[in-house]
Design brief:
Oligomer: single chain
Protein name: Tetratricopeptide repeat-containing protein
Order of helices and strands: EHHEHHHEEEEEHHHHHHHHHEE
Structural class: alpha+beta
Shape: globular
Organism: Bryocella elongata
GO biological process, one term: regulation of DNA-templated transcription
Mean pLDDT: 80
Largest sheet: 5 strands, antiparallel
TPR repeats: 168-201, 202-235, 236-269
Domain HTH merR-type: 4-64
Length: 301
């Protein structure tokens, strides 16, 4: 069985350490320095749910309830998590199970139901096609972890997108393969496809911002990062990248807000010190306007 070090998990899933620490404190993932492939799949699922604006407390309540109702040891891995409003239900036994209310509904992929949508898959797919795509996706993820089989993973992701053109995770992962190969045009195409397939997928907009940044298209990159922040206001890495982009555009005052936000959101992370230093430098160098109590404006020295 493959084992992944903590830093490998953070790198593969592009997570800030703060986020993983939060899930560990909530008991959603084990606190360890070595992760199995199942652990990796669980962290990936948590990343996707969080990017879809599901709170950690809501996920925790739903997982606890599902364990009691279903007897599943690990519902996040053993069943498919589905977003309904601001909460999580699980696809199990051919139905959608709300473990908190202990109610079941028809699976919308079998019979469409208003107000319900999955975190990442196309609701128009036939159940057999959806199951095939999911199996292919898991195989592709495994293949992607070895440099020798990345090409096979890319082919499998392309196959998934032929079956389900709106499969956002496949588009994201294929885009990341292109990105790592420095095929930025291919990566941009896939990331844009993911944002269309799932307009509430913050990670898709964040990744799109990254590839636009690589191409020196900074205003477009900032726009994509800002969209990620609209979806997930606490997206620390988006604040960090926006700040960097504004610095490169020589707009330090606009960068200041994002340096400050990042330092507050991730105060102990590896880049927090840099963010604080940048904010301090801008405050020291920029003659910022100060408004006194009587409404008169004075210039800072």
């Amino acid at each position: 069985m493959n084992a992944y070090r903590r830093e490998d998990v953070l790198r593969i899933l592009r997570l800030p350490s703060r986020q993983l620490n939060t899930w560990e404190r909530a008991g959603l993932v084990p606190s360890t320095e070595e992760y199995s492939f199942q652990d990796l799949a669980q962290v990936r699922k948590l990343r996707d749910l969080t990017a879809n604006r599901i709170s950690v407390s809501s996920i925790r309540r739903s997982v606890d309830a599902m364990q009691k109702v279903s007897g599943l040891a690990n519902p996040l891995v053993q069943s498919a998590a589905v977003r309904v409003g601001s909460g999580v239900v699980f696809r199990q036994w051919g139905a959608l199970v709300n473990p908190i209310s202990r109610q079941m509904a028809f699976d919308f992929e079998l019979a469409p139901c208003a107000g319900m949508q999955t975190a990442r898959t196309s609701s128009s797919a036939h159940p057999e096609i959806a199951a095939q795509a999911q199996e292919m996706f898991l195989r592709a993820v495994r293949l992607e972890e070895s440099s020798r089989t990345v090409g096979e993973a890319a082919e499998m992701y392309r196959g998934i997108l032929e079956l389900q053109p709106n499969h956002a995770p496949a588009a994201i992962n294929l885009g990341t393969i292109y990105y790592n190969q420095r095929d930025f045009a291919g990566a941009e195409s896939m990331y844009r496809k993911a944002t269309i397939a799932d307009p509430e997928y913050a990670l898709a907009f964040f990744d799109l911002g990254n590839v636009l940044d690589e191409q020196q298209r900074l205003p477009e990159a900032i726009e994509s990062y800002e969209q990620a922040l609209k979806l997930v206001p606490g997206y620390a890495d988006a604040h960090y990248n926006i700040a960097l982009a504004y610095e490169r555009l020589k707009e330090p005052r606009k960068a200041l807000r994002h340096w400050t936000a990042y330092a507050k959101l991730d105060p102990t992370g590896p880049w927090a010190s840099h963010a604080r230093q940048q904010a301090k430098r801008i405050l020291a160098q920029e003659p910022l306007a100060i408004v006194c109590r009587h409404g008169r404006q004075m210039k800072g020295k």
